[in-house]
Design goal:
With about 725 residues, the protein is of the alpha/beta class. The strands form four sheets. It has a seven-stranded mixed beta sheet, sandwiched between helices. Strands 1-10 form a two-stranded antiparallel ribbon. Helix 18 (about 425-435) runs antiparallel to helix 20, helix 22 packs antiparallel against helix 23 (about 590-600) and helix 25 runs antiparallel to helix 26.
Length: about 725
């Protein structure tokens, strides 16, 4: 390393200006593993300015008194960007990002695919940025029979090259030492990797006159992409004139550059790398792919994996979710018994506490879902899922990368929409976001469960096929079918013109890195709590207000009525008398339940329920269901709690009592409310309607516009209404 770094005075005062190191590399090169190893839990996740691409930054302690900030840039194959995330990395490397500046680069290269990785590496070297190369996958390279001469590779590249294995923490100490030395010194690269100035000598010379300090290769990129750089109008015009005067041809220059680079890379490989006979025995990974990517067995295995993934999310999340729910129930009960009855205590218990519970109860699902997805990614199987599903997805305007967000939507649409960020094509990503909420998330389960139990007998066919289970599965499949139909329609209406490529590298199979899994789970939970959680809290407080208050005349009359009833009951109790059987007086607990139900009926939410009853009556719904539709807008599972309150059930989790009350509920004309037609209509409505404010909040965050969540709300509501209407009218 000493022969590449010339000692000089420190280039910066580290205490006043911390060093920023950009971490770059090809996709699947081990960059994320290295980032997690170097930073541990000292990480922060946000968004790059102006785009929804994840920005991960972290603090790495290189020495006792030296910490640097590591910026994990999106994976790129070259300095000619095609996707939004590649543009992010490109602008940072070209020093064209107004907010993110990198003092040096840590470049991750895959030793088992060195030729491909050296293209990106050589381009960055020619930008004359201080670079340290971390060579990963050396163990896999050895298995392939590849031997790399590290000193020789250092000599050819002109920068330090350190072999590392982040999964086993090998080479990390040496890498930190090299980075620490580099931050206190200046690099001096004696030569270009290729003769960049010869690609367009006159144009490059003119660029140096207008933008001093550029390397020859950076000057070429300014000529090609200056329109995307934050330059003043006068400089933009001068660069345009340089292009015209020198007849600068973008495509020809780029093609010549790539050819020269691969010729030079071939020479480097011949000098420093010994590769095995191409007819060698195939690796274990290729043998596995013969089965997992088989045109028949591949799909059977995929469906099996997805089935167990789907089941595991519910099974694993049930216990922590129940624990969170139990904790908030006990805490709310304690506060209710301790605090004096007042509007502020009601707000705290039924507004703030209910809102926090609605946020935190989703955290286990989000953490488990992303944990399992990270396991699939680390093992290499996620790429195979996208590959297998691409053919079907393309028929409806999507691609193979859309399948995982859709599958994730079975647990919760919020993290599922967040996971759509890895779809490069903007139109396909937007289509995925627009249809993912049609997947039946776990919040719909309480609605499905109680309604199916009400109207479907618990019968079994062939001894193991449950009629109730078949209807439940049918609802999930119906959501998938509608999602594909909607996507096939929206692909003609969304006028984003961007050519779609499905280029996917199939990584080798390897065991998951559990520390990486844990870090990912924590990060995704934090994003949900602090981003979508803000909107959930606001909506919860708004719903508390609408459900707790109403017109003063109605509320005063209601309070007076129940005050008199309580007074009569108290007087009877004090005198030791019993109510006359002909004129029974409800006990105090029953009075409180009736008061709660009647207060909700006369609240603003209740009035709204009555007002929308004419619109929902054709669907088979009454005003009580209307209130549930309104109150469950923040979270669908609120439906059960609302029904419990309306039917004066003592606790919302007493399913038998609630089912009995709902089963005997009648309309004003004496007909039964919950017939099979009504129940199926209601389940279809909850299946298709956007009854989730947190999902809308995340869609707004991901699209950076209110346009798409509004369109999503309108189309899903209309689809739910007319499909429910059709179902009820056909069955009733």
């Amino acid at each position: 390393m000493q022969r590449f770094i010339l000692q000089a005075e420190e280039i910066m005062n580290l205490s006043l200006h911390p060093v920023h190191i950009a971490l770059v590399g090809n996709p699947n090169s081990g960059k994320t593993s290295l980032f997690n190893t170097l930073t541990g839990l000292n990480q922060k996740v946000g968004n790059f300015p102006g785009v929804t691409v994840d920005k991960k930054t972290g603090i790495s302690n290189l020495e006792k008194n030296l910490s640097v900030q590591l910026i994990d840039l999106p994976g790129s194959y070259s300095l000619y960007p095609r996707r939004a995330d590649e543009w992010v990395a490109y602008k940072v490397l070209m020093n064209a990002d107004t907010e993110i500046k990198a003092d040096m680069v840590l470049l991750v290269a895959d030793a088992s695919n060195l030729k491909r990785n050296l293209l990106f590496c050589s381009q960055i070297l020619d930008l004359k940025i201080p670079v340290v190369v971390a060579l990963t996958m050396t163990d896999l390279a050895r298995k392939k029979g590849i031997e790399i001469d590290l000193p020789g590779l250092e000599r050819e590249l002109g920068v330090p090259v350190i072999a590392v294995n982040p999964r086993k923490n090998k080479g990390i100490a040496e890498l930190k030492k090299t980075l620490a030395h580099a931050t206190r010194s200046t690099f001096k690269q004696a030569r270009d990797f290729i003769a960049n100035a010869e690609l367009a000598p006159a144009a490059v010379s003119d660029m140096h006159k207008n933008v001093p300090g550029l390397s020859d290769y950076a000057a070429i990129h300014y000529l090609i992409n200056h329109e995307n750089f934050p330059l003043d109008a006068a400089l933009q015009d001068r660069i345009e004139n340089i292009e015209i005067a020198n007849q600068f041809n973008h495509t020809k220059t780029q093609a010549e550059e790539i050819l020269q680079r691969y010729n030079r890379i071939r020479q480097v490989m011949q000098q420093t790398v010994v590769e095995p006979d191409p007819l060698q025995k195939k690796l274990f990974t290729e043998k596995i792919d013969r089965v997992l990517l088989h045109r028949t067995w591949g799909y059977i295995i995929l469906l099996t994996v997805l089935f167990f993934l789907f089941q595991s999310i519910f099974w694993l999340a049930q216990f922590p979710m129940d624990a969170i729910d139990w904790t908030f129930t006990k805490l709310s009960g304690y506060l209710n018994d301790t605090l004096q009855a007042a509007w502020w205590s009601n707000l705290l218990i039924n507004g703030v506490m209910a809102g926090l519970s609605g946020i935190l109860v989703f955290v286990p699902q989000i953490m488990i879902l992303f944990g399992l997805i990270t396991v699939l990614e680390d093992t290499g199987y996620m790429a195979r899922i996208s590959f297998l599903s691409d053919k079907l997805m393309r028929k409806v305007g999507l691609n193979g990368k859309s399948v995982m967000p859709m599958i994730s939507g079975f647990a919760c649409a919020v993290p599922a929409i967040m996971s759509a960020r890895n779809i490069e094509n903007r139109k396909e990503r937007l289509l995925t976001i627009m249809i993912t909420p049609l997947m039946s998330c776990s919040a719909r389960l309480p609605v499905y469960t109680i309604l199916i139990a009400l109207v479907v007998p618990n019968k079994y066919y062939l001894g193991f096929l449950s009629l109730q289970g078949l209807l439940m599965m049918g609802l999930y499949l119906l959501g998938v079918v509608f999602a594909l139909i909607v996507s096939s329609v929206l692909k003609f209406l969304i006028r984003l013109q961007e050519k779609s490529f499905f280029i996917l590298e199939l990584p080798v199979y390897r065991s998951p890195r559990w520390k990486n899994v844990g870090i990912t789970m924590v990060q995704k939970a934090k994003i949900f709590v602090f981003e979508a959680g803000k909107v959930i809290m606001v909506i919860s407080l708004l719903l508390w207000f609408l459900s707790s208050f109403g017109p003063s005349k109605r509320m005063d009359a209601l309070d007076k009525k129940y005050a008199e009833l309580r007074s009569v009951k108290s007087e009877i109790s004090i005198n030791g008398m019993h109510a006359n059987h002909q004129h029974p007086t409800p006990n105090l607990a029953e009075l409180n339940r009736q008061y709660k139900a009647e207060k909700l009926q006369n609240s603003y939410a209740g009035i709204l329920g009555r007002s929308i009853e004419p619109a929902i009556k054709p669907l088979g719904f009454d005003w009580k269901i209307g209130i549930a539709l309104i109150t469950s807008f923040a979270a669908r599972e609120v439906f059960v709690g609302t029904m419990a309150t309306l039917y004066s059930v003592e606790t919302s989790d007493d399913n038998l009592s609630l089912k009995q009350k709902m089963n005997t509920a009648v309309r004003e004309d004496g007909t039964k409310v919950y017939t099979f037609a009504t129940a199926l209509s209601l389940m279809i409505f909850y299946l298709l309607a956007m009854q989730c404010m947190s999902t809308l909040a995340v869609v707004k965050r991901e699209t950076k516009s209110w346009k798409w969540p509004v369109i999503q709300l309108i189309y899903m509501t209309a689809l739910a209404y007319f499909t429910s209407l059709l179902a009820y009218q056909l069955l009733s």
